[in-house]
Amino acid sequence: MNKKVILIAVGLIILGIILDAFSAHALKKLISFEQLQSFKVGTKYHLFHSLAVLILGVNYSKLNLSLTIIALFISGIICFSFSIYFLSIQDLIGVNLNFLGPVTPIGGILFIFAWICFLQRLNKM
Questions:
Q1: ∠ CA(101), CA(106), CA(110), 5° rounding?
Q2: What does residue 52 show for φ and ψ, rounded to 5 degrees?
Q3: Which of 46, 56, 91, 104 makes an SS bond possible with 16, Cβ 3.0 to 4.6 Å?
Q4: What burial letters (b/e) apply to 86-122, b meaning 16+ CB within 10 Å?
Q5: What is the pTM of this model?
């Protein structure tokens, strides 16, 4: 068990729940349907991968993990989900954030790479 990883995961889960609730109640009245759907994709991947970080944190010693895999998941959440969040609300806040567009697929690649690294770690056990 790695208590720091668990605390980070729980913080990410709480934030994901807050952002999902915010999108369901406040944002749906303020942004387009397409923007809302994009925001929801961000929260889905945010929560899913935060749970993965939590599970890895709980089983950290048992799986003999390195922090690199966990850092890849967290970096993926930041790049993928947060770029989607900001791109979805850019009209609402009146700031052009289109430069974040290429960050989203980088986050997706980080997710894929994290899962591949995790799979490789499991194969070494």
A1: 150
A2: -60, -45
A3: 46
A4: bbbbbeeeeeebeebeebbeebeebbeebbebbeebe
A5: 0.91
What pLDDT was estimated at residue 124? Answer: 81
**Distance (Å, whole) CA 7 – CA 4:** 5
Which residues, 6 or more positions from 8, have their beta carbon under 8 angstroms from its beta carbon? 53, 57, 74
Helix (H, G, I), strand (E, B) or coil at 97: coil
- For residues 56 and 59, give the distance between their C-alpha atoms in angstroms, rounded to a whole number: 5
C-beta separation of 20 from 47 below 8 A: yes
Residues 6+ apart with CB under 8 A from 80: 42, 45, 46, 103, 104, 106, 107, 108, 110, 111
Of 107, 8, 125, 18, give the one whose Cα is nearest residue 56: 8
Measured torsion, CA atoms of residues 93, 95, 96, 99, in degrees rounded to the nearest 10: -90
| Torsion angles phi and psi, residue 62, rounded to 5 | -60, -40
**pLDDT tens digits for range 19-33:** 999 999 999 889 999
